[in-house]
Write a structure and sequence with these properties.
Length: 138
Amino acid sequence: MESPEVRRRTMQAVKSKDTAPEMAVRRLAHRMGYRFRLHRKDLPGKPDLVFPRLHKVLFVHGCFWHGHDCARGARVPVQNRAYWTNKIARNQHRDKTAQASLRALGWNVLVIWECETRNEDALRKRIDVFLFNADETP
């Protein structure tokens, strides 16, 4: 069990921008020839990648923090279980609200999960299908 000081330092080190999965997606999209803007504050949810000309946005979600149904996302910490369950539920609700708002504004939305960034070929195909096709969302 960690001391409160160690836990505090660990949590302070968690980033919300420029995470490893986000950077992997950004590098891949750039290599594919797509150009984008980052974290536009004028859009709901501040999407990680914004493709203004295509009117498409991309979110890169951490499996744990956004409650994905993979093995990593299904984990719930043993300590302070109620807090983490509520926090992840609030994150999921915030995500759904932001995505609905973006769609209402005419944006197409794609969510890429942290676990999906490990297979570059599948990720490349998913991004290409999303960005290349006119109004389709995979």
